[in-house]
Amino acid sequence: MVDQLSKRFGWTPIVILLLVTNGAFAYAVEDDFGSSCLGGKECLKRSVWIGRYVIENDQLRIQDHSVFRGGAAAWIGVDEDFLHDCTVEDVDGVNRQVCLQKTEVRERVWRRYAKPGWYGFSFRLEGQIRERNSERFILAQWKREKSDGSPFLALRFDNGVFHITLQDDDLKNEKDECRVLLAKAPGNFDAKLKTFATDEGNAPCMWTDDAGRMDSNVNVSGPNGGPPGLLPDPCVGWVDVVFFVKASETGKGEIRAYAAANRFASLSDLMAIAKGRIRAPGLGDLQYFKFGVYRDVITDFGVLPFAMYFDEYRRGDEPGDVFVDEPPEVSSLEFSKTEIPTRECSLRPIGS
Fold first, then answer.
1. Mean pLDDT per 10-residue section of the chain, whose length is 352 residues
2. Going along the chain, which residue ranges are E strands?
3. Which candidate, 83, 81, 32, 97, places its Cα nearest to that of 53?
4. What's the rounded Cα separation, in Å, for the pair 120 and 118?
5. Does the pTM of the predicted model rise above 0.85?
6. Given 3-state DSSP classes, what are the helix, strand and coil percentages for the chain, each rounded to the nearest 5?
7. N or C end of the chain, less CB within 10 A?
8. In whole angstroms, what is the distance from residue 193 CA to residue 216 CA?
């Protein structure tokens, strides 16, 4: 194929190699959305994104009324008119319609699976949600190329609480999933779930479909060996996050999570470190990142509008590709200790 394309177009083999590997040779990528037009999905930077699950333009907008830095940011949301992937499932012996709300944007150039890399982006949330404990609610995720299972790294918003999870799944047994909590913001996303290990050893499975499994093969800690730091609340203001991501099937994986409120995160904002077997079911040589709303729909009580703002995406092989040096400044979103911040996400009990 390389020889044929080279003869037809006169390109050199090395250029062809970079094209046909679908991003296997990763390079630094960034998008501050400032060079985009203001409008719908047609304004996405096509060299960076694919709006695969943005069905209508009113689900995604490049707008300038709420931005982290620069002139524009992405807004992506769902409302009561948008249902996706509806199926009929047996729930406790009763056939019920189960739907998803899925409005996501996927990166165009993928990385080699398990290749170490750095990612950074800023986001904030607004809208209304139901109090449903651990109802599925994903904001951003990393998945393997051919995976129908859970993402191996995910930013979640179950019960209105921002938290980050990892997967340590048995690749030979689809009924052996183990989800591990990396870090969380204030609040309780599900009182029934286990959280951090209380003694020496690996983190527990905070969720698993194997009743006999208790512990993961992942060690989770804070920057100084203690418990992970408390994540900022993206319903109060902008949160900038940075991740070092290395999945592994053999126990050599590592995730580092950094987070800061209303400013770019720095190396001093390390929240948590995970080391061990970080993996989810799937095949293929590549992995990809996507952001947007991916949540279960509670059709019994109606669907409430919800939105995510997304800005300052960057990705690369080195820390310098994602950490941004800037002079200290007082953000308009910062508040004093005596003031109570306004939370732009409201939690509504079932039936209200």
1. 38 35 59 86 90 76 92 85 65 70 88 93 88 74 86 91 88 69 88 50 70 75 90 95 93 95 95 90 86 72 76 96 70 38 68 48
2. 29-31, 49-50, 60-63, 73-78, 84-91, 94-107, 111-112, 117-130, 137-146, 153-156, 163-167, 178-184, 207-208, 218-221, 239-246, 253-261, 270-276, 283-296, 306-316, 345-348
3. 83
4. 7
5. no
6. 10, 40, 50
7. N
8. 14
**Within-domain flag for 13:** no
In a domain, 106, yes or no: yes
Written as six digits, the tokens of 273 are 């470190």
Asked if 260 and 312 touch (Cβ cutoff 8 Å), the reply is no
Pairing of strands 73-78, 306-316: antiparallel
Rounded to the nearest 10 degrees, how much is the dihedral formed by the CA atoms of 218, 223, 229, 231?
-80
* Pairing of the two strands 345-348 and 117-130: parallel
pLDDT of residue 72: 94
3-class DSSP assignment, residue 348: strand
The helix/strand/coil state of 61 is: strand
| Helix/strand/coil for 136 | coil
Range of the domain at 227: 28-326+339-348
Note whether residue 178 is domain-resident: yes
Predicted pLDDT at 8: 38
**Helix, strand or coil, per DSSP, at residue 238:** coil
Nearest to 164, CA basis, from 57, 51, 258, 266:
258
- 203, two tokens: 């983190």
Residue with tokens 């509806």: 86
Strand partners, 348: 130
> Which is it for the CA torsion 112, 155, 85, 38, positive or negative?
negative
| 329 Cβ contact list (under 8 Å, min separation 6) | 263
Report the distance separating Cα 139 and Cα 124, nearest Å: 10
Q: How far apart are the first and last CA of the chain?
A: 60
CB 26 within 8 A of CB 118: no
pLDDT of amino acid 18: 34
Residue at 3 is within a domain: no
Number of domain units in the chain = 1
